[in-house]
């Protein structure tokens, strides 16, 4: 059954402390998000299937293990999800990349799709949807809905930090989706910001306000 996985690896937690720090520069913040994306990719690909292959070392022939032709796609939610993309691609360079663009209505807080582009064979791929933050859950729910509409079946969601409220919303809307989190935070405040959080991930990644 799909589960919520909170990653407690020491390297992830160490880097998250600097990501949260308001004094961390844009450059360093961007580098750290990239690095944590790579570390999370290592963890979430743990269950990929392997097959036996014959290789010849400088010494002798042997049977080794390789990925069994698994097709993978990484789908960042624009724009903040782009911060995790390159780190994941370094570990999974053969992955295809799709994108979902959403904006949040300032009144209703609902996520509205404005852009979607995916690999043509998305229905055959394991999909990793990435976004640094899972707050209300609205963006993640809509992004995954857009991906499912195109035929995708096996989907996981990865984020740096999440509020319990957002996790519950995502679980209820998409109970078949595994959720991977670097840190599960305390709550949402009355402005739907994650507490203690890290601020606005997109602004901190791109130096905007």
UniProtKB/TrEMBL annotation:
This protein's GO cellular component annotations are:
cytoplasm
Which GO molecular-function terms appear in the entry? GTP binding; magnesium ion binding; uracil phosphoribosyltransferase activity
What Enzyme Commission number(s) appear in the record?
Answer: 2.4.2.9
Family stated for the protein in its record: Belongs to the UPRTase family.
Q: Which residues form the Phosphoribosyltransferase domain?
A: 6-208
Notes on how activity is controlled:
Allosterically activated by GTP.
Q: What does this protein do?
A: Catalyzes the conversion of uracil and 5-phospho-alpha-D-ribose 1-diphosphate (PRPP) to UMP and diphosphate.
Annotated gene: upp
Organism expressing this protein natively:
Aliicoccus persicus
Q: Which domain of life is it from?
A: Bacteria
Per the record, the pathway is: Pyrimidine metabolism; UMP biosynthesis via salvage pathway; UMP from uracil: step 1/1
**What is the free-text note on the cofactor?**
Binds 1 Mg(2+) ion per subunit. The magnesium is bound as Mg-PRPP.
- Asked if the Swiss-Prot or TrEMBL record annotates the protein with the keyword Ligase, the reply is no
- Asked whether the keyword Nucleotide-binding is assigned, the reply is yes
**What does it catalyze?**
UMP + diphosphate = 5-phospho-alpha-D-ribose 1-diphosphate + uracil
What protein is this chain from? Uracil phosphoribosyltransferase
State the UniProt keywords alphabetically.
Answer: Allosteric enzyme, Glycosyltransferase, GTP-binding, Magnesium, Nucleotide-binding, Transferase
């Amino acid at each position: 059954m799909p589960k919520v996985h909170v990653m407690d690896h020491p390297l992830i937690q160490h880097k998250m402390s600097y990501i949260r720090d308001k004094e961390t520069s844009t450059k360093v913040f961007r580098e750290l998000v990239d690095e944590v994306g790579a570390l999370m990719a290592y963890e979430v690909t743990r269950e990929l299937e392997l097959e036996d292959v014959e290789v010849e070392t400088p010494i002798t022939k042997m049977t080794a293990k390789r990925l069994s032709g698994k097709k993978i796609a990484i789908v960042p939610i624009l724009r903040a999800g782009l911060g995790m993309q390159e780190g994941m691609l370094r570990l999974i360079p053969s992955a295809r990349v799709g994108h979902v663009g959403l904006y949040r209505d300032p009144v209703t807080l609902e996520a509205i799709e404005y852009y979607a582009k995916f690999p043509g064979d998305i229905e055959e791929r394991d999909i990793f949807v990435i976004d640094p933050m899972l707050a209300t859950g609205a963006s993640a729910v809509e992004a995954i809905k857009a991906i499912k509409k195109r035929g995708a079946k096996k989907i996981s969601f990865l984020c740096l930090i999440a509020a319990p409220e957002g996790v519950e919303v995502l679980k209820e809307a998409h109970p078949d989706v595994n959720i991977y989190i670097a840190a599960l935070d305390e709550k949402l405040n009355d402005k739907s910001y994650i507490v203690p959080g890290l601020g606005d991930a997109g602004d901190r990644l791109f130096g905007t306000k």
